[in-house]
From TrEMBL:
Keywords, alphabetical: Methyltransferase, Transferase
EC number: 2.1.1.171
Name this protein carries in UniProt: 16S rRNA (Guanine(966)-N(2))-methyltransferase RsmD
Presence of the UniProt keyword Methyltransferase in the record: yes
Gene that produces this protein: rsmD
Gene Ontology molecular functions: 16S rRNA (guanine(966)-N(2))-methyltransferase activity
Annotated Basic residues bias: 1-11
PANTHER family: METHYLTRANSFERASE
Pfam families: Cons_hypoth95
Region annotation Disordered: where it falls in the sequence: 1-24
NCBIfam families: 16S rRNA (guanine(966)-N(2))-methyltransferase RsmD (TIGR00095)
Organism: Teichococcus globiformis
InterPro entries: RNA_MeTrfase_RsmD (IPR004398), SAM-dependent_MTases_sf (IPR029063)
Top-level lineage group: Bacteria
Length: 187
């Protein structure tokens, strides 16, 4: 697994052993960032200089990809101890400690946010309907800026019922489905 583009292009990322953490595949990350980069509802400005939250961070691949492509900062939310150690190592390997903050904890019970983020990546375990729960909890904790762009990776067969959010785009990639959304009153 590697960073696909930007300043850290080609940088190898580690992944925890076993099947507890399912990192987003390089090709899926490439497809997501290509979609964001070229969409009329997103574009380069949605990533460049953005405050990013990588919830269910695992290896940190999504947040580190955003930093590589020009995001100003990334907060990483992860609860698994083994994944946290790998996440710290990946941030150090990219020399992004100054622009990164790790929050050990659960995305469905997050700590109070130090600031709201304009770009959120959610890549929870498939089949547990965690995206709606996490968005509700992250919103209450102050992590979501009013016009934030949310990118979720869910299983291709999973439903996604999110009242109050407008779906901007959906794409299937093998077992994964990428869904980009925004609060309905700001879409």
């Amino acid at each position: 697994m590697r960073i696909v583009a930007g300043r850290h292009r080609g940088r190898k990322l580690e992944a925890p052993p076993g099947g507890t953490t399912r990192p987003t595949a390089d090709r899926v990350r490439q497809a997501l960032f290509d979609m964001l980069w070229h969409a009329p509802w997103a574009g380069r400005a949605c990533i460049e200089d953005a405050a990013v939250l990588d919830a269910f961070a695992g290896t940190g691949a999504l947040g580190l990809e955003a930093l590589s492509r020009g995001a100003a900062s990334a907060d990483f939310l992860e609860r698994d101890r083994v994944a946290l150690a790998v996440l710290r190592a990946n941030i150090a390997a990219c020399r992004e400690e100054a622009r990164s903050r790790i929050w050990p904890g659960d995305a469905v019970r997050p700590a109070r946010a130090p600031r709201a983020c304009g770009m959120l990546f959610l890549d929870p375990p498939y089949g547990q309907e965690l995206v709606p729960k996490a968005l509700a909890a992250l919103g209450k904790a102050g992590w979501i800026a009013p016009a934030a762009l949310v990118c979720a990776e869910i299983g291709v067969e999973e439903g996604l019922d999110l009242p109050g959010y407008a779906v901007l785009a959906e794409r299937a990639h093998g077992a994964a489905r990428l869904v980009c959304l925004r609060l309905a009153d700001t879409a």
